[in-house]
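User: Some background: our group keeps a shared notebook of sequences we're curious about, and every so often someone picks one and asks for a predicted structure to add to the entry. Today it's my turn. The entry only has the sequence so far, pasted here. Could you supply the structure so I can complete it?
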Amino acid sequence: MNLFADLLASTKGSTVTATGPRIQQRRGVEIKSARELKIMEKASSIVATVLREIMELVEPGQTTGDLDAHAERRIREMGATPSFMGYHGFPASICASINNEVVHGIPSNKRVIHAGDLLKVDTGAYFDGYHGDSCVTICVGDVSEEAQKLSRVAQESLMAGLAQIRAGNTLLDIAGAVEDHVLANQFSVVEDYTGHGVGRNLHEEPSVFNFRTDALPNVKLRPGMTLAVEPILNAGSNACRTLKDRWTVVTKDGNLSAQWEHTIVVTSDGCEILTDRGN
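Assistant: Of course. Here's the predicted structure to add to the notebook entry:
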């Protein structure tokens, strides 16, 4: 899940909800201890399990509300709480965005999934004080060649970015690898939304951008940093707009959008994917 930088910057103090301390005071880029990483591994494994299950069970005729109910039930069964539910008022456990919907689609029992849809499912789990966060794009039934390629390139761009992660490299190394792969395949990178740090808060510093820029801090990577890396690609223009529900973001030109995301920890010689689904 990702939000505008100004929304993240508005976080002050600490908020306690029924599910625990969900928004804590931000302390800059945090280096996680071995104890913290062990907890984040558990939170992230719960997210990976839920997404793997959804990828296996989704089929035409279901609703996005069905998927949300499954995600919430399974997250709670595994001893965690949904990271997204109630976060800045978001009403569900997953974001379910279809076709030209870019991010933050609100699940509904009225929103039927059809063969040919390009479905993005993003979810998070909050376990013992720490979050895991991940997103997949699912080709439902037989989809167009464009949809298949967009999803594949989005996933490849994620992996290209992850391949640049190691202690001593910078966020621009990640961004350049992502952007180069996307542009080489004639798609566009959404710039309104970025990846982020993750840990005690669902969104922490730094912003993990997917495009070359000097407008955001180019942080040097250090072992123990935990990041949610999440390229978002559009088939046409990267311009987006938000619908009247104030959450669902769509492409302005109506073209398709795809997203893949992993929570990772930086190591001395690479990174470990904490939300690895094993597939």
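Suggested note for the entry: The chain has one domain: 24-273. The two ends are 21 Å apart (CA to CA).
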